Structure formats: structure tokens, C-alpha cells
Amino acid sequence: MNTLPLKIREELDGYFTQNRLSEEKKRDILNTVKILYAKSSYDPEEPVGVVTAQSLSEPATQMTMRTYHFAGTAGIQVTLGLPRMLEIFDARREPRTPTMTVYMKKDHQNIEDVRKIASSLREVKAKDVILSTTTDLTEVQIRCKLDTKKLASLGMDPQKVSKCVRLRNTETLVEGDELIVRPKKVDLKNLHKLKYSLLESHVKGIRGISQVVVTKEEGEWIITTLGSNLKKVFEIEGVDYTRIVSNNIFEVLNVLGTEAARNVIIKQAKYTLEEQGLGVDVRYIMLLADLMTVEGHIRAIGRYGLSGQKASVLVRASFEETKKHLTSAAIRGEKDDLRGTVENIMMNQVAPIGTGAFTLVRRLPGLAGKKEWREKPRRTAKPKKPKKTKKPAKIKKTRKPKKTRERKAKKPRKKKK
Q1: How far apart are alpha carbons 7 and 204 in whole angstroms?
Q2: Residue 243 to residue 358: CA distance in whole angstroms
Q3: For residue 42, which of 30, 33, 52, 53 has the smallest C-alpha distance?
Q4: What is the CATH number of the domain that holds 143?
Q5: Are residues 33 and 75 in the same domain?
Q6: Is residue 403 part of a domain?
Q7: Which of 163, 222, 285, 317 makes a 20 to 30 Å CA pair with 4?
């Protein structure tokens, strides 16, 4: 039991107490869980990063390129498929279609309260409550006819619309059912720009939430929004702020912190893959999310790997702009420790992963039980020097006796005649 993580142990204890199992059944379940846990763990120095990259990128090639899709019965378009995966792992600050799922508290689970909350969430712009606009060049002002019925349905007083419209260097007032906007400085050139900014100005609701849909799922009323603004939604009474879900990762990071952003990355990536019918083990996504958020902020994963993590000069040079990377590394005096896979392949040597990360050690059978042992080199017997054989005694050469030359008898000289 001690070999298992704390969370698994707690879950097993809760399961045992809930089902009141016998000791024998507990033992069988525990042994099965231990076997499954041992099979799910990875070997020492296994290249889990490479396996994770392969396990996520290979199914991603089967994903569709369709950008928008209607999420369930809500009828709100959300980005899915490959574009959504790129948004998540490239760590883009603003998703194309930010959405929120807002849950209600138990005492607000009736259609009237839900509709009130939904209407307070949706952003109302001036153009939504204006029927027509006229530009008066002689008086240098803009006159807008207000939709009184729409204002009544939103619970707004027409006289208070002028206070809601906030534009710089302008004066706003309401006369009957008309809204009049006058610039403080007479400037005919900027009058059309002023008209555009007037129509786009915020009147009511939460900024950024353009669409709201109320649905009922599993006997519970839920509000789905197009647009996200967690801070403002938390302030609304009746909203269950413990269960609000947003797909804007950076907004979750700023409001709720790093762990919440990590959970959003995991859930959004898993949902995007499963929606396409692709099954990927959640542990690969968890490893990726951990690496992206380990330093307290979100880092993107792009063509160079994790941003700021490629310390190897050779790896940077192997992808693009080889000359630029090698030159800048030479100027800075950078050093490559050859710790990764790519750089060791380039150098034609064994990469420090798997069995290549270890040196082989042999245990001698005689020293197996001892605490400290070292492999000592065997003492080999020195080869005996061959015995010196006595050289035969040198035979002294006797000098040959000198030959005595016999003097020849001289011939008698002939007498001259």
C-alpha cells in the first residue's frame, strides 16, 4: 500500500469503507491496483518528452481544419479542431471565440432568476437601443432616436441613457425619445468618427459578452456565453462562482492563478481531442500542461520546443537560420554540454537516454552481501621468467705454430766468359 501515491490510497480506502469489502477482496483489489500502477509507470531515463510529443502530434494530424462548431444545444459557435489546439499550445492571449459556462446556485434554479441573470450578463451597446441616427452639420451634433420598448424590456430609464454613454470631450442629453451628443470643440471632420464611437459605446451588462444562451442540462439551468469576463461575473448575485468554466487561459491565470490555468489547459486539450474522436492518454496532456505552467506563467510550445528551453546551440542551429545561431553563440562564448538527443546524433555518439544514460557495473559474486564493494582488477600471476641456460664454455683457440720458412739454397752464379 505504501508504494502507491497518497491520492490512490485515499480513493481505495473510501471504496473499501463504502462497499464494506472483506479482507480477502481488499487484498485482491490492492494487488491488482499495484500491478496496474507498476505497468503505468515509466522506466528510468525513458525519453517521456519525445513519447509525449509523438503521442499528441500524431493524432493531431488526423484533426479537421474546421474552425467553428455549434457547442451542443447552446447554439454558440466555438473554435474546435486543429485551430483550437494551436491556440492552446501557442499560448495565444485572446482565443477566437472565448466562452463561459455559468452555473446557478440552488436557490436561483428557476427560469425567471436565470433570465434576469442572463440579461444582466449580456453587453448592451448603444446601437442595440438606437433606432436611427442623424448628423446635424449646422448645429454640429448627432441626434439619435431611442427604442423605448427595448429600453423597457431591459429595465432601463430613457433619461438615464445619457449617463451610461461616456464619450470624451462630449456633452450628452436626452430630449423626449432622442439622445443628443455634442462635441465640446467644433470639428466637422471628427463628427463621423464620433458617430461610430457613439454606436459602439457600452450601455449595460458586462463588457466582452456579446451573446447569452440559457439551457437546461441534467435538470440544472446553465448560461452559456460568447465572450469571457470572470471578474465581473463573480460579482453577480446568484452565480455559483465555484463552478464557472472559461476557455480563456490567460484570463483564468490572472483571476484564479497558475493551478487553475493548468487545469484549463488539460480540460480544453482533452475536450478538443475527444470531440474529434481521438483518444489520447490524459497523462501526456498533463505533462505538457505542467511544463507550460511550471514557472508560474504560461509558456508557449512552438517549433523551437518550449519557449526559452532550448539551451543547446546545435539544436537551435539544426532547425533554421544555422549561420545566425552559430555566429551569435560564438560571440557570446556559449558552451554545448551535449545533454539532449539531437545534438548527440549530430555528433555521432550515444544519446544520454534509456540505456545510453548508464554505465554498466558488474557485481562480483563473492562480495554480493557486503555493504561496500568495489570491483578490483584481477591479480594475474606474473609469467615466470625462463631459466637461463648455461652457455657452453668457450674453447680457447690455440695458436698454430708459426711455420718456419726454410731458406732456399742460393743457386751458384754463372761465371762470365
Answers
A1: 46
A2: 48
A3: 52
A4: 3.30.1360.140
A5: no
A6: no
A7: 285
d(CA 269, CA 262): 11
pLDDT at 377: 55
Q: What's the whole-number mean pLDDT along residues 139-144?
A: 78
> Does 146 reside within a domain?
yes
Q: Are 266 and 291 in contact (CB under 8 A)?
A: no
Contact 142, 134 (CB under 8 A): yes
Residues 6+ apart with CB under 8 A from 27: none
Number of domains in the chain: 4
Q: Return the pLDDT at 73.
A: 47
pLDDT tens for 32-54 read 998 888 887 878 888 888 888 88
pTM, two decimal places:
0.69
* 85 and 156 inside one domain: no
**Is residue 359 exposed (0-12), middle (13-18) or buried (19+ Cβ within 10 Å)?**
exposed
CA 176 – CA 174 distance, rounded (Å): 6
Enumerate the β-bridge partners of residue 182. Answer: 171
Q: What is the mean pLDDT of the chain?
A: 80
Radius of gyration of the chain (CA): 45
- In terms of domains, do 266 and 317 share one? no
